[in-house]
């Protein structure tokens, strides 16, 4: 099996990636429906969007449409985002440019699992569009695959990631790069902080969406405006916040794809009882290459 990797190096519109993801999932679903030969290759899209708050299926607004009120357009928001209505705007066209001085974010309801989270500059977002059955994955294994791939990336930077009873990947509070990290509740019994959100959507075992890994401290102001993932009193952090300096989103994106492939091949395509196909090659693609297929 070959895996396509599209990395968008610049800060981009969330709408642009959402539309591309829909195109790729539709191709996989069409293949399953019509049993065409040569299934489309699985794809990972890595990118950083303009500031955007997204909601999952557990936190959808009363209506997915905006309401016109005279000359104004009122967003239909879930209760979790009503307190920050003043900094939200509807989904923008794909050619919107990023203004680093702006404190305005887009709002996008999505079909992924989970509740409210934030994506934006300083964060790696990775969406995996693939057929779980072809890789030998159950839905639960898929989530664990994403989490373990992130944990493997963090290990490369001397950070010990972990999973808890709450979704996503967590690290102990106060952890600094180069310091030894113990088990349990971390230094002084402090609660762990979230470094990566995980949320996916499945239809006929075709996956979409994925993870958001905080690389720099830029996302922290935005996270403080909400109760991320509905977890009251829990904080977020980043690689930079843990003392890992000078790391780019593109570097982390490459490591995530490498670790994802290693986990697929090691955990689901090899060994006794493995049922998935191995990933023999990862190839880089451009957006226009995917759209013209």
Overall description:
With 293 residues, this protein is α/β, with parallel strands linked by helices. It has a single domain (2-60, 74-175, 191-290), classed as BirA Bifunctional Protein, domain 2, CATH 3.30.930.10. The protein has helices spanning 14-34, 139-156, 220-223, 249-268, 287-291; strands at 2-12, 43-49, 52-55, 67-69, 72-74, 88-89, 105-109, 117-119, 123-131, 169-171, 193-203, 206-214, 281-284. The strands form 3 sheets. It has a 7-stranded mixed sheet, with helices on both faces. The radius of gyration is 19 Å and the shape is globular. The model is unreliable at 67-71 and 175-187 (pLDDT under 50).
Task: Using the coordinates shown, work out and report the CATH topology.
Answer: BirA Bifunctional Protein, domain 2
Order of helices and strands: EHEEEEEEEEHEEEHHEH
What is the general shape?
globular
First CA to last CA: what distance? 18 Å
Record field, number of beta strands: 13
The fraction of residues in strands falls at 25-35%
Strand order across the biggest sheet?
10-11-12-9-2-1-13
CATH architecture: 2-Layer Sandwich
The largest sheet, given as strand count, sense and whether it forms a barrel, is: 7 strands, mixed
What is the residue-averaged pLDDT?
87
How many domains is the backbone divided into? 1
CATH superfamily: Bira Bifunctional Protein, Domain 2
- Helicity range: 10-25%
Given helix and strand content, the structural type is alpha/beta
Contiguous runs where pLDDT drops below 50 for at least 5 residues: 67-71, 175-187
What is the gyration radius calculated from CA atoms?
A: 19 Å
Number of helical elements = 5
CATH class: Alpha Beta
Catalytic activity: octanoyl-[ACP] + L-lysyl-[protein] = N(6)-octanoyl-L-lysyl-[protein] + holo-[ACP] + H(+)
Protein name: Octanoyltransferase
Pathway: Protein modification; protein lipoylation via endogenous pathway; protein N(6)-(lipoyl)lysine from octanoyl-[acyl-carrier-protein]: step 1/2
Keywords: Acyltransferase, Transferase
